[in-house]
User: Fold this.
Amino acid sequence: MLGMRALAVVTVSDDQNENSRNESQKWTRNQIFTLVSAASLNFSSMICYSSLGPFFPKEAEKKGASASIVGMIFGCFALIELLFSLILGKYGLLEIFSGLGLILGPPIGGFLYQSFGYEVPFFILGSIVLLMVPLNMCILQNYDGIASKESFWNLIAIPKIALVCLLLCSISSCIGFLDPTVSLFVTEKFDLQPGYVGLVFLGFALSYALSSPLLGYLSDRTPRIRKWLMLVGSWLIVLSFFLLGPAPILHIKCQLWMFVLMMVISGFSLSMSGIPIFPEIISCAYENGFEEGLGTLGLVSGMLGASWSLGSFIGPTLGGYLLEKLNFEWAAAIQGGVVLVFSMLMSVYLLVETMHKRRSYSGNSTDEERTQLIPD
Assistant:
C-alpha cells in the first residue's frame, strides 16, 4: 500500500537483537526474486489504475457522467481491493511498490492521452501488466502459507492499532480524493492540458519518491521516532489539504504555484506518515502477544491493506459527491478535516502513552536505587 514500506516484511522487526538484524540484511536469491515479482505486479497494476487521473474525469464528464459517478468509478477499484484484503490478507505479504505505481501513473497516463488519444494509455499499460504474468511465473517460487492463530478482530481490538488504522484510512481517503477531482479542478481553474495535469501529479510523485528512502532509513535505524514521523506527517497532510483549494475560510487566492506546492507537501507527508506504519504496527502486535512469523506479517498486511482500501473507496466517492454539491475548495478542506480529527486523537494517545512510560521508567529506577541501598 501507498506509504507502507514492504521491505519490513523481509527484514523483520527492529526490536530484535543485533544478530537477527545482521542476518535479515543478507538477501537470498529467493527473497530477491520475491521482491522483483511483487514489485513488478503491484507497480504495473497500480500504474494502470492511477493513469486515469489526468484525463478520465474529463472524458466521463463529456459523456454526461456527474462528479459523483466519476468518484464511484474510481472507488469501485478500492472496494474490491478492500474485500480481498480481508479474505487473503492472512496469507499474503505486504504489497510492494503499489504506491510508486499510483503516483507515477498520472503523468504517464496524461502524456499518452495527450499524445496519442484515449485508447492508447489503456493499450500500452494493459500490455505491460500482461507481460508481467509470464515473468512472474518464471521467477516466483511456491511458498507454503502459514496462517496466523490470531484473527483480524484480535488485532483491531488493540487501541493503538485501531487508531492507526483509522488514521491510515483518513489519509488514504485524502489521496484517493485527488484522482477524480484534481484534473477537473486544474483544467477549469488554470486551463491546463492533460499532459500538464500529469505534471501537477508528478510533483506529488517526486516528493514521495525522493523522500521515501531517507524516511525509510530513519524509520529502520531509529524505531523510537516512527510514531512521531507518522504523527507529524498526518498534520502536514491536514495543512496541505486546507491550502490545496485553499479552504474558503482562509480567504487566500488560489494560484497554480501554491497548488503544486501543496501537492509536493502532500507527497512528502504521505511518505512521512505512511512508511513507519507497518513496522510500528508489527512491533505493537508482538508486544501484545502475537507470534513472530509470516502469519502475523500477513495478518497486519491484510489489516493495513483493508484500511487503505476503505479510505481509497471513501475518498473518491465522497470527494466526487462533495465536488458536485459544493466545490473543490470545500471538498479538499473537508477531507483534510477528517485527518485533523484522527491526528488530534493520535496526538493525545501518544502523549498519554509517553507520559505513562516515563512514569513507569521513573518508578522502576527508584525501586532499583532503593534496592541497591539495602546492605547485604
